[in-house]
Amino acid sequence: KFGGEDYIAKQRREIENTIEREYMKYLQTPQNLSQDTRKLPTEESDEPDPVFQIAGLKKGVLSGRWYDLRYCMREEKTGNFSVQLADCQENSKLGISNKIRTNVSPLQIRRKPSKLKRQGLNDNETAAWRRKNHIILSDENPIFNPYTTFNQLNLPKNLRGAVENFVLPMPIQAQSWPVLMKGRNIIGVAETGSGKTLAFLLPIIMKILEMPVLGTNLVTRGPLAVLLAPTRELTAQTFQVAQSIGEKCGLICNILFGGVNKHRQTKRLRNGTHIIVTSPGRLLEVQRERKLSLSRARFMVLDEADRMLDLGYKEDILNITALLPAERQMMMFSATWPDEVAAFGHQVLKNPVTVMVGIRENVPLACPNILQIVEIISTHPTVRYMRLKELLRKYHDPYPHSRVLIFVREQHKVKNLDKRLREEGYPYSQCVHAGKTQRERLKSIRIFSKREHSILVATDVAARGLDIPNIAMVINFALPFRIEDYVHRIGRTGRAGAKGLAYTFFGRDDHRMMGKLKKVLIQSGAPVPLDLRKMRPRDYDRQTEAVKMDY
């Protein structure tokens, strides 16, 4: 009986058994080893990665930067390490020795590139690499063959620290860097958490440092690079990354966004700036007051371009590009690729090279590292809240280093849910929504990111650009109205190669999302509930209306 208690109980058991099997594999891994001797899965292993290897929850070991160690296999020997590359077949084809070396730190071995890799891939290897990573390139000129190692980027010494925790570039980075280093405009489309920030930031900084006069000299007439972002949170986050890298090279970075004191922000511009991270509205406001000139800008980035169009920034972006010099390099990055974004990209960028990672049939591809679970459940708030408490007790409470992000559609429901969680055993719960001031939102996010065992209840204001490590689980208490927002929501977990879990409540109010949600689940290799797979929207309405559950 659809929606009846027996059906719901059976469905919950099936879902919990699926997660339990994955979780038991995590429990079977050695937990008493130190961080340096913990064995990690290899690409050769037939066993899937356990769901709760998300961040070494019990030991508090962050795995967000450990994803590249899947290319290495570390074995504990008596006092020594033995390191072996995991993909031996591919190495044999490339002529790389698979000899095991001992008495050498694994971290040293993983940072040492082979001579062949330093030379780059040939055309056949490039085609195979792109097929493996689901990359479509609009211009397959050999000069755009990917940089599959960091050495091919020829980073100066003071920039190498930005990538020291990574073994290999992410696919969007590897394919974007050769395009940008050749001076071409680019449109990059990739899933959330795929490393798009470093994809454009490192080439920009390298090119600024190469400028003989405008490089490290103090720029007093305006920025050399303008990075546009749609939200305050994403602007602040991109600025933090740019500042941490730029200050090592003597570059000055500044930030502009609304909701805070404008005088304090513009006061910092008096000392000059090389890179400015800003929202479109505040940038135009400051420019009209003649406190900033864009006449020297050589680089412009549109980050999260799809979101900027959703927020109505199209005219602002066109006005900003009109203020830039003709000789400029434009970069546009997005996590989704609807027709309106594609048309706008080709309107703003001249003859761009398009790099698409994992986008199929105009449906955004969710990160494959995220285990997506969709549960058909009543829309009654009490039923959903009781189910939420069950999930928290099982997958959050026992693990002191986990963080959970809960998404709700309406502001008042965010407040109510946060208040109820605080009153019923979760005093560390925080909430973020558009009704809060910028200072309050940043404070809540800061508390959530610093406190390991915490919960954040938010609207879609936190769905984009929020990059907080060790978010073990995302719960869609209510589905968004757009499939792109769903992908951005669940992309807050499983970032930078780590594992994540996304749990979604699906009710009769979500029938318009049914078709696209099924496509996202299928393309990501996620399980689709049997009833959702067979159901059509009109069937869903008829069945749910026929069953009136009494609460």
From TrEMBL:
> What EC number(s) would the UniProt record show?
3.6.4.13
Q: Does the keyword Nucleotide-binding apply?
A: yes
Please tell me which top-level EC class this enzyme sits in: hydrolase
What is a single molecular function from GO for this protein? Answer: RNA helicase activity
The segment(s) forming the Helicase ATP-binding domain are 177-355
* This protein's UniProt keywords: ATP-binding, Helicase, Hydrolase, Nucleotide-binding, Nucleus, Ribosome biogenesis, rRNA processing
The places in or outside the cell where this protein is found are: Nucleus, Nucleolus
Which intervals of the chain are annotated as region Disordered? 26-50
* SMART domains per UniProt: DEXDc, HELICc
**The Helicase C-terminal domain, residue ranges:** 387-536
* Listed PANTHER family: ATP-DEPENDENT RNA HELICASE DBP3
Family, per entry: Belongs to the DEAD box helicase family. DDX5/DBP2 subfamily.
**Task of the protein:** ATP-dependent RNA helicase required for 60S ribosomal subunit synthesis. Involved in efficient pre-rRNA processing, predominantly at site A3, which is necessary for the normal formation of 25S and 5.8S rRNAs.
The entry's protein name is RNA helicase
